[in-house]
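Example record for the data management plan.
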Amino acid sequence: VQVVESGGGLVQPGGSLRVSCAASGYTLSNYWIHWVRQAPGKGLEWVSVIVPGGSNIYYADSVKGRFTVSRDNAKTTLYLQMNSLKPEDTAVYYCLLFDSSLYWGQGTQVTVSF
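Corresponding structural encoding:
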């Protein structure tokens, strides 16, 4: 499974950005999908998870109310909509797909700064 994250960039504090996660040829609704991030010089931080089928989504307290996970109708792309961004949201964002194995991509850089 090849996972590709995209959509990162530079945004000012208070701004919004949407990052995407795609797995070519695979239906994402079959997987547990986690968003995690890694800030410069720090370890991985869990951000969110969507269960298989999409009936439940959970968020870390640090992003709750600001970040929203959604997916397209074809269930081939997962989105992380990030609003009210803060400098501490600066990180490389990864999506992790899990069934009996774990798959992840190269990540996408999100930088929140003036």
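Summary line stored alongside the record: The mean pLDDT is 94.
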